[in-house]
Amino acid sequence: MTAPSLNPSDACVVVPGLMPSRTRIRWAPLAGLTLAVCSLFSETFAADAFRDRVRPILVEYCFDCHDAETQKGGVNLARFDTAQSLHLDPRLWEKALRAIEEKSMPPERKKQPSTEQFHRLVDDLGEVLENPDPAWIPRDPGSKIPHRLSRNEYNNTVRDLLGVDLKPANRFPPDGGGGGGFDNNADTLFVPPVLMERYLAAADELIAATPRANLIRQEPVWYTPESWAARANLQVFLRRAFRRPAPAEELDRYVALFQSVRAGGANFEAALRVACKAVLVSPRFLLRIERSVPGEGPQPLDAFELASRLSYFLWSSMPDDALLDAAESGRLTQPAEWDFHVRRMLADPRAREFAANFTGQWLGTYNLAQTANPNLDRFPEYTVEIREAMVAEPVHLFAGILRDNATLLDLIDARYTYANASLAKFYGLPSPSGEGFQRVTLPDRRRGGITGMAAVLTKTSYPRRTSPVLRGKWILEDVLGTPPPPPPPIVNTLPADDKVRDGQTLRQRLEEHRKKPNCAACHSRLDPLGFALENFDPIGRWRDKIDGKPVDASGTLPGGEFVEGPEALKDALLRRQDLFLRHLTEKMLAYALGRGLEYYDAPVLKDITDQLRRDNARAETLVLGITRSLPFRFRRAAEPVTAAESSP
């Protein structure tokens, strides 16, 4: 076989047109010399492509709207002048590349690049974004401030520590939502004064309700000092509460507190409870504190810090004794032992906390009672029971995918769902055979996956009608990770319901709205996606007519792809599964780390999504990839302290 000759178009061939994902065909020459030349050529091409081939086209066609002065939509492309600079904001350039591929940018009314320029933009931008020089992006695991337990994490932790079924954190101030969109983001978990008051009250309540057996594992005996038994009990309690063995001097302080209360006349149990209450208001219990180590480059977390990261990722709670024992013995840092505990914890019922917290916040369905308000006169079927079942459905689906190590693409298109009797009746399905939520086989592809779930469809509707715009925005933003720009400040409102007015359906009114130049660019992306779901009414039931007229669930995506109905929409999403898998990975990594992602996290995202592609997007591959990654297992080194800074 003769290796093909090389020219710039051979280095990376990109299939033109509206691409669900860039399909790159790379030559694999057999001759070693040819391979070396190919590699050298590719690196040089990637380094020079943006400056020499891409930026001049952007200057000609894009900078009149997106330079430093205009910054339409808040986008300034002029600040990027080298291939390396693109990787300071790769998400912006990925969005720009998609807009170019879809031919939504430049807008139709603007001067358009030639066919040759269009392909050059797509080819060269894609090459630079997908194959960055490793030297361009620092190997940085990021840093994180001490991580206060969120309300949910606090409730779960005291449940597992004390064996109580109370939820005192429900009376705490609400947690913030930070980078990544999750309430466990350390940067937003402040400790205001009112929260300290609630911590003290919660500690009183919890200690009063604590079963004696969970505090006193060793009774005092007549032939040894009581303080010995107190020390033995506190040593076990502190190890679990602080999620690592307590140093001797720290243990001594709690034993001294026990002795002081005992000397005041309290009995052994009462004095021990006071010492345990003090533990519950300690920063070492309320915060996940990781040591800060000076040095060069990423610093590995110790075994106990890793145990806490893993348990709060998969359980939203403290490590169990098995995980702490593995950390204390040193086994946890061994790859086989680590993977064993990841799989063990995914199989544990406590992993449902992960499914509930991650899925509910990612999809925006966990607080449906606050974010959706269907008109009950028009939709009396929307009861509290149905609403709660709606919220539970995506949680059970995601938990089942984790438990079975199924493909994550079932989130897009599955021939099954999970329903209880009330939700099955609401959907028109046979009632499940068992109690509670059960896996139910669906008769067709209309309903399966998150786009056909009533919680999502209700969340993206108005009280009296559906909203193709909101549904399309949700797909772009929460499913594909390609959010549209914000709407202009003045937008004409549409009717509050979907009744035909002046002979026009709601869809016809939307199409009139979309003809306006300032609206067309966004609505050409939003509306067709939302129209495909129009057979689902404002509370997610199937319908064939709207106000007596047949439902029109068709639309044309930018670039000419026609979709009609939820099945075709799923096909279109599956053709864009690379976008979905990357976005899902990005969301889960942010959730696992408890921080927003930065540009230096891009290589990790790419590595994990590449693994998912190779492994049919199995759920375990994603979780293991995250827990094995640099930012999960390492932290940024602390700045060295100078002599002047350390002096009094």
Write the layout of secondary structure elements.
Blueprint: H1 8-11, E1 13-14, E2 24-25, H2 32-61, H3 63-66, H4 83-86, H5 90-101, H6 115-130, E3 147-148, H7 151-162, H8 193-209, H9 212-215, H10 226-241, H11 248-263, H12 268-280, H13 283-286, E4 287-288, E5 299-300, H14 303-314, H15 321-329, H16 335-347, H17 351-363, H18 368-371, H19 384-404, E6 416-419, H20 421-427, E7 438-441, H21 454-459, H22 468-479, H23 506-514, H24 517-531, E8 545-546, E9 549-550, E10 554-556, E11 562-564, H25 565-575, H26 577-593, H27 602-614, H28 619-627, H29 630-633, E12 634-635, H30 643-646
Antiparallel strand pairs: 1-2, 3-4, 5-12, 6-7, 8-9, 10-11
Helix pairs in contact: 2-6, 5-6, 8-12, 10-11, 10-12, 11-12, 14-15, 17-19, 22-24, 23-24, 26-27, 26-28, 27-28
Word description of this protein:
By secondary structure, the chain is mainly alpha-helical. Among the domains are: 8-136, no CATH class; 378-487 and 503-575, no CATH class. The longest helix is centred in the first third of the chain and has 30 residues, at 32-61. The radius of gyration is 28 Å and the shape is globular.
Short description:
The protein is mostly helical and 648 residues long. It is built from 30 helices and twelve strands.
List its traits:
648 residues; mainly alpha; two-stranded antiparallel sheet; two-stranded antiparallel ribbon; 30 helices; 12 strands; 5% strand; disordered C terminus
